[in-house]
Specification:
about 475 residues, Arc Repressor Mutant, subunit A, globular, mainly alpha, 2 strands, Growth Hormone, Chain: A, 2 domains, about 5% strand, two-stranded antiparallel ribbon
Length: about 475
């Protein structure tokens, strides 16, 4: 269980200030992300450089991805103060810049070392996004902000790819490095303006933790992005004879899908779009079997596949943005969430590499992808239910904390089924409704934490629920019935 700090606005910003902040914020993260996409994370620039020097590159590629995953997963655990977060972001940009410079020269041992170190550092860099989203962006604006970051970074990536293809690979690499420096400049502009901060810490409010929903989301993202790894290693190579169309069109469906999702009304239910995206992804793999590997085939397959990835990516990025409300360590939550995407790509890439090595047929590869998608389809309703419970629980706990003490007592007494509980279980229930963790309840009631867990388990059993989220929702809705 995690605790949350209740936040209050420091002031109301006018429209121009808000627009300026959003531009700076998006620039500060989309520029470094463009560097990651165009070079570090299976980017075309890296492939072109390795191919230019006739280097067998799977080891280089996988080393960078593994290091990036470790940076995302591990760094957030240590980012617990504003000063540390800001320093990590600046230092990570500098390290990525310095470790990429050797690629401007002839191959050396510094290439592999540079990929590993910059991969880890870029993971740390992206982890800090969770902190800045919570500190600078209102919750209701986060979906649009992350959509803008993804759209802008992919547009920049397309520009860099075109330079790589039509001008020079090393000019493309130079532009990638400029993106890193640009991100640092925008970050300096962001943190030097205190009026951009929308929330500040005040009263501590304990809320239902994000551990279980985050675990489910982690598994979901891994499974769905396995297909992304397969795309990199299996599908894309089949269209290497179409470099112009691949370069210009590859990310366009992804950007269009992001834009559509971004501009949907705020009250639109997004779960149907996830199922549409699943159908699109399945159709893409079926098309991979049935269609010729020409321009028409590429346009159809890529539109279906990258469009679905746009829907999925914005969904789980926005879910992570919502989860930031329920944790005191947003960098950790965001880093773990992003690392799931990288791990999925890594697993999918490994499967694709093995498929190529053993010369799997297109049918066998498609069957593998469809099995993954079936698992995703089964997992999606479970994930949606857990996230809905998380949101409801937070709302109820926040309302409970705002009640006067006599109102809280009255609510406990009015709760349906309260007569089923012992006096000690009623005391534990009261602490649960106030949002306290098991450890905090144990201290409050002067009992052991294991005893708290026993009482909580008895309460769950009597109300026929399995989690705190279900218990809180059941009690609140029962009181209102």
């Amino acid at each position: 269980m995690l605790s949350q700090t209740k936040n209050t606005p420091t002031g109301i910003m006018d429209a121009n200030t808000t627009r300026k902040k959003h531009i700076i914020f998006v620039g500060g993260f989309s520029l470094p992300f463009a560097y990651i996409l165009s070079f570090l994370f299976e980017g075309r620039v890296l492939y072109s450089i390795l191919d230019h020097f006739e280097i067998y590159f799977p080891g280089y590629i996988f080393a960078a991805i593994v290091a990036h995953f470790l940076g995302l997963f591990a760094c957030g655990w240590f980012l617990k103060s504003q000063i540390i977060i800001q320093r990590v972001r600046f230092i990570s940009i500098i390290i990525c810049f310095l470790m990429t410079l050797p690629f401007l020269f002839l191959p050396s041992v510094f290439w592999r070392i540079g990929l590993i170190i910059s991969g880890f550092s870029s993971g740390c860099l992206m982890t800090t996004l969770g902190y800045y989203l919570k500190k600078y962006i209102w919750k209701k604006h986060r979906l649009k902000i992350v959509a803008d970051i993804l759209i802008c970074s992919n547009l920049l990536m397309i520009i860099i790819y075109c330079v790589d293809l039509y001008v020079s690979t090393f000019v493309g690499l130079f532009l990638s490095l400029l993106c890193l420096l640009g991100g640092m400049i925008f970050l300096c502009l962001l943190i030097r303006e205190p009026q951009f901060i929308v929330e500040e810490a005040s009263k501590t409010v304990n809320t239902y933790g994000v551990k279980q929903p985050l675990q489910i989301l982690f598994v979901f993202v891994i499974i769905i992005t396995i297909n992304s790894g397969l795309m990199y290693q299996v599908i894309n190579p089949q269209f290497n004879h179409l470099p112009d169309i691949v370069t210009l069109y590859w990310a366009i469906p992804y950007i269009i899908a992001l834009a559509i999702m971004r501009y949907l009304p705020s009250d639109t239910k997004r779960s149907p779009f996830l199922y549409i995206a699943l159908i699109m992804l399945m159709s893409a793999f079926v098309g991979f079997i049935l269609l010729e590997h020409n321009v028409t085939g590429y346009l159809i397959i890529n539109t279906l596949m990258l469009g679905s990835f746009g829907v999925f990516d914005l969904f789980w990025w926005s879910v992570l943005g919502d989860m930031l409300e329920y944790t005191t360590n947003p960098s950790k939550v965001f880093g773990i969430g992003l690392s799931a995407n990288v791990l999925g790509v890594l697993v999918g890439g490994a499967l694709g590499y093995l498929a190529n090595q053993h010369e799997f047929s297109k049918t066998e590869i498609t069957v593998l992808a469809l099995v993954v998608l079936c698992i995703t389809t089964l997992l999606l309703p479970v994930l949606n239910r857990q996230l809905v419970l998380l949101l409801k629980s937070h709302t109820y706990l926040e309302a409970y904390n705002q009640m006067a003490e006599f109102q809280q007592t009255k609510m406990i007494q009015e709760t349906i089924g309260i007569e089923m509980l012992t006096n000690r279980e009623k005391e534990v229930l009261e602490q649960i409704l106030s949002g306290k963790t098991n450890h905090m309840i144990a201290q409050k009631l002067s009992i052991t934490e294991s005893t708290v867990k026993t009482h909580a388990g008895n309460i769950y059993s009597k109300y026929e629920v399995n989690t705190r989220a279900e218990l809180i929702s059941t009690l609140w809705l029962g009181r209102q019935s």
